[in-house]
Amino acid sequence: MSDSPVFHQVTVIGAGTMGSGIAQICAQAGSAVRLYDIEQRLVDSGLARIRKFLDAGVDKGKVAPEQRTAVLGRISGTTDMDQARDGADLVIEAIPEDLELKRRVFAIVAGGVAPSAVLATNTSSLSLVKIFADIPGAGRCIGMHFFNPPPLMPLLEVVRAAATTQQTVDAVLAYARQLGKDPIVVQDSPGFATSRLGVVLGLEAIRMVEAGVAAPADIDKAMELGYRHPMGPLRLTDLVGLDVRMAIADYLRTELDSPAFEVPQLMRDMVSRGETGKKAGRGFYSWAE
């Protein structure tokens, strides 16, 4: 990591699991970070999540106590958008996968940052052209798709829209490496590389369960042991959330006009019953414990 981060002041919009993790790694890279959300309880929860993660690192001997103190000292939380965006040279949005919501947020953000500030979305599948429509300075707009949990997952999918400048891409790639990530560059296409491949694999695994081909654990084991996937597609679907993946699949089915993204009836039934995965305590696996 360079002594001087590419982006000195980073604003992260959204203090959930992804946003708090992104804020943590940006602070670890030496950036001053403001973590924003609409309610103080959400900000407090995000900051507590960061502290808990760093505390666990200290307990395991992977993080020095003084490093924990330094990282926490670089992060502040706020519910004031004016304060959040003030002086930012990079804004990373990490809010729910709702196109109109993202558009509204960036319209607000863009009006209060310098024209040179890079605007990045953490979307896993939505069109950058649509997210950044009507935002002045399209060349500074880019996708930074992190993976859960951001402090541990090495990949960063850098998504380039048609108008994104090479200068913006180069700056984000350099910063990605300062974050300890191994970045890839993909074009602005529905689902990019990771969601497009990952979702279709998960949907086919669900169709196999639906058809009685094998039990979920055995399907996952087939991919883990046979293809060296670190996690099977059904367990991953539980972790991401069946409702989240279903929404992405519906979007890709429309955008790509491909039957490969047709949502299985089993998936729709499970979501309607509230069996959305780990966050609900039950999906293809029981997470109650």
What does this structure look like?
46% of the residues lie in helices and 13% in strands. It has 289 residues and is α/β, with parallel strands linked by helices. It has two domains: 9-187, NAD(P)-binding Rossmann-like Domain (Rossmann fold, 3-Layer(aba) Sandwich), CATH 3.40.50; 195-280, N-(1-d-carboxylethyl)-l-norvaline Dehydrogenase, domain 2 (Orthogonal Bundle). An eight-stranded mixed sheet has the order 3-2-1-4-5-6-7-8, sandwiched between helices. α7 links the parallel β7 (155-160) and β8 (182-187). α1 (17-28) packs across α2 and α8 (194-210) packs across α10 (233-240). The model has no long low-confidence stretch (mean pLDDT 95).
CATH architecture of the largest domain: 3-Layer(aba) Sandwich
Tell me the fraction of residues in β-strands, as a range. 5-15%
How large is the radius of gyration?
19 Å
Poorly predicted segments: none
Anisotropy-based shape: globular
Number of DSSP helices? 12
Main beta-sheet strand count, sense and barrel state: 8 strands, mixed
Text of the CATH class of the largest domain: Alpha Beta
Secondary-structure-based class equals alpha/beta
Number of strands: 8
The CATH topology of the largest domain is given as Rossmann fold
**How are strands sequenced across the largest beta sheet?**
3-2-1-4-5-6-7-8
Mean model confidence by pLDDT: 95
Number of domains: 2
Compute the separation of the termini in Å.
39 Å
